[in-house]
Structure formats: C-alpha cells, structure tokens
C-alpha cells in the first residue's frame, strides 16, 4: 500500500508538472528571438520525455500495487466477515483509493504550481473553482439521499422475491401470485424513480461543472492578457497557471466515480442498525427443571418459550442472572461442547440444500455411513427415505422444500 501511495502521489504530481513544462515551451517560442530557439525547445521536450517515463513508472506502481493490495484486503475482509458473522449471537479496499490519492495530489499540486507561477491570476481563477466545489458537494449530498432510497426499494423487492420463492406453496395456496408480482413492481418503480432523480442530479452536476469550467477559461485568458500587458507575466506563465488549475479542477471530476462508490457504501451502511440490547424479554424470570424429567413449556405467543431455549443453547447470554446446570454457570462451558450435547428440532426445521445423507452428517463431525443410517433408523425415517428414487442421496432442495413437514422433522431429528 505504501508503494501504491507513493506511485499515486507521484503520478498526480507528474500531471501537474505538465502545465509547468508547457508554459516553459511557450516561453521558448515567444521569448527567444535568436537561433537557440530549437535548443531551448529540445531541452523542454527532453524534460517532457523524462516526465513521461516518471509518470509511466508511477502509474504502474499506483495501479499494480493498489490492485494487489485491494485483492488481498478484499479476500481478507471476506474471511473476517464470515468469521465475525459466525461468532455473533443470533442478535456486521478497493483500488479506487489509489485514484483518490492521485486526484488529491493533482488538486493540491495544481494550486501550489499556480500560486508559485502567479498568485494574482491564480487568486482570480480561484473563485469559479470554489463554486465548482460547492456544486459537487450539493450534488453529492442529493445523490447520497437518492442512492439510499434506491437501495431501500431494491432491498424491499429482493425480500418480496425471496419470500415468494421460499414460500411458493403457501403463496400458491392463497393464489397470491398476482399480489406478489404487484408488490415487486411497486418496489421496482420506486427504485426507477430514485434512479431517474439520481441521473438528473448527476447530469445537472456535470453540466454545471462544465459551464463553470469554460467560464473559468474565459476569465483566465482575459485577465491573463491584462497581466501580460500590465505586469511581468509571460504567455507561458499564464498557460502554466491555467493548465495547473485546470488539472486541479479536472481531478475533482475524475474522483467522482470514487465519490459515487462512497455514496453507495454510505447508503448501504446506513441500513445496518443495532438490535435492542436494552429491551428485556424475560424480566425476573426463574425456572427449575429437575434432572431426568421431561418438561414442557406452555405459554401464549410471545411469552418467551423460544427465548428460554435460545438461552439454554447460548444463542444469547442473559444480561443479568445466570443459567446453571448442576450448580455450574453455563457461561463457564465451551459453546461448542454445550451445543454438541443438545439437539434442537424446531416446528419448521431448516435443511441445507444438499442430500439427506449430508444433512444428517452435519450432526456429528466425521460421522460414518453406519452411524448416519443408524440415526435415520432411530428417527423412524428409513422407510420414507428408501421409497425415494435416490434414497439417502436424494436432494432435499432449498430449505428442504422437496420434503413434507413431517419428513423434514424426522431428518432433523436424525
């Protein structure tokens, strides 16, 4: 990453130095009336060649190093993301960084060169650039808002599709296909409107930027002409100042795709919200389950029956009090050991989209074929599995959709 930063900074500064060398080139034509014009032009041309080589090396460092760094970071973040998700309770680099650094170098370097060459003209040209920055800022805020609305709409549409496909039998039993399609269309229409607004804002911003840019050209050459006549400015210095500030202005536009990426990321991140850790579900709750007894938890909907099981499984830890087995706090046991000792079959069990054999094998690391078949026999699932065309190798489908509710429960018990 350090090499990428150096390359990006060097590449940006090389873009700015082009303005200086072009100014020197113009002065070589205009100020030399003798036969050494060709010699002076050759010197400047040679400097441009050196600059081209430097820019090429810097650009290669920028792109290659940032690409390698981005791929490494992306792979690492994906692994860490999955690890983090799997560690949670049941209750959250890209190569564009190099471009941003290069554009920042161009922006700052352009201003420095312009003020060194002629601070008065640079100061006059600065006012339109301030307007340009303000326009970009306003457009960025508006696009962020529209991107958020668009992502919300697409997310809602994706939920409609996921729920419809995942519960297709329920949807079909209530003849709700048309309603699902209408809900999906409404979500897409909202996303379309947000996309149109975002496009209009982007177009308006680009048009305004070019308007300000060309007005700045006119101001630069008009006031630059006055400086040549009234001050000690030369045509080369005016050109250097104009090109330097032009590069600084264009760097803002070149960085806009990066800003768009930040906008999308900001909109996505804003949807990530915490759960309600202060909300108490089981307040002052006490329960004693005798050893070796079958116990049934009976209560109304939302009374906390499932939450008690979740606490025993350590999907959650209690905020106060504790859960004790033979006087030992559940927190003192390893989570893996606890869950190996507990079997949980929900009313609507979830199976993985693989074979019956592999689903049963998930219950024990390194389970043998004999152990799998014995577990299926105990769960009273052998008869219906043998009646299937592919037997134990039958694919159960997404969430076990190919099996009936009772069959799914027996596979889950196994």
UniProtKB/TrEMBL annotation:
It is found in: Membrane. Residues 6-264 form the ABC transmembrane type-1 domain. PROSITE patterns: ABC_TM1F. One of its GO terms (molecular function) is ABC-type transporter activity. The chain crosses the membrane at residues 48-69, 97-116, 122-142, 200-223. Its main location: membrane. It comes from the Eukaryota. Keywords: Membrane, Transmembrane, Transmembrane helix. This is ABC transporter B family member 21. CDD domains: ABC_6TM_Pgp_ABCB1_D1_like. It is a multi-pass membrane protein. InterPro entries: ABC1_TM_dom, ABC1_TM_sf, ABC_transporter-like_ATP-bd, P-loop_NTPase, Type_1_exporter.
């Amino acid at each position: 990453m350090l090499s990428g930063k150096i390359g990006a900074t060097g590449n940006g500064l090389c873009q700015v130095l082009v303005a200086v060398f072009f100014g020197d080139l113009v002065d070589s034509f205009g100020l030399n009336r003798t036969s050494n014009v060709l010699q002076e032009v050759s010197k400047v041309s040679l400097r441009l060649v050196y600059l081209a080589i430097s820019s090429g090396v810097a650009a290669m460092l920028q792109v290659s190093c940032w690409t390698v760094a981005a791929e490494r970071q992306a792979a690492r973040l994906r692994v860490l993301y999955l690890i983090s998700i799997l560690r949670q309770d049941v209750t959250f680099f890209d190569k564009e960084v190099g471009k941003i650094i290069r554009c920042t170098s161009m922006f700052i370097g352009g201003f420095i060169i312009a003020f060194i060459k002629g601070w008065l003209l640079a100061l006059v040209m600065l006012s339109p650039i301030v307007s340009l920055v303000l326009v970009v800022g306003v457009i960025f805020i508006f696009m962020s808002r529209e991107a958020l609305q668009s992502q919300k709409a697409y997310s809602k549409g994706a939920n409609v599709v996921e729920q419809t496909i995942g519960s297709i039998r329920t949807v079909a039993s209530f003849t709700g296909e048309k309603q699902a399609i209408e809900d999906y269309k409404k979500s897409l229409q909202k996303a379309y409107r947000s996309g149109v607004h975002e496009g209009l804002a982007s177009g308006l911003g680009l048009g305004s930027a070019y308007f300000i840019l060309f007005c700045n050209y006119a101001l630069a050459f008009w006031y630059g002409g006055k400086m040549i006549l009234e001050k000690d400015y030369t045509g080369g210095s005016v050109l250097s100042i104009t090109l330097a500030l032009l590069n600084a202005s264009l760097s803002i536009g070149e960085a806009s795709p990066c800003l768009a990426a930040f906008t999308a990321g900001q909109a996505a991140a804003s949807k990530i919200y915490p759960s309600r850790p202060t909300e108490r579900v089981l307040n002052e709750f006490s329960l004693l389950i005798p050893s070796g007894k079958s116990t049934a938890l009976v209560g109304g909907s939302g009374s906390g029956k499932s939450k008690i099981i979740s606490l025993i499984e350590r999907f959650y830890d209690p905020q106060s009090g504790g859960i004790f087995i033979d006087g030992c706090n559940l927190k003192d046991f390893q989570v893996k050991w606890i869950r190996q000792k507990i079997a949980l079959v929900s009313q609507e069990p979830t199976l993985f989209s693989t074979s019956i054999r592999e689903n049963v094998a998930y219950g024990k690391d390194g389970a043998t074929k004999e152990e799998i078949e014995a577990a299926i026999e105990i769960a009273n699932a052998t008869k219906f599995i043998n009646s299937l065309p592919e037997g134990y190798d039958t694919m159960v489908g997404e969430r076990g959709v190919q099996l009936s509710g009772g069959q799914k429960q027996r596979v889950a018990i196994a």
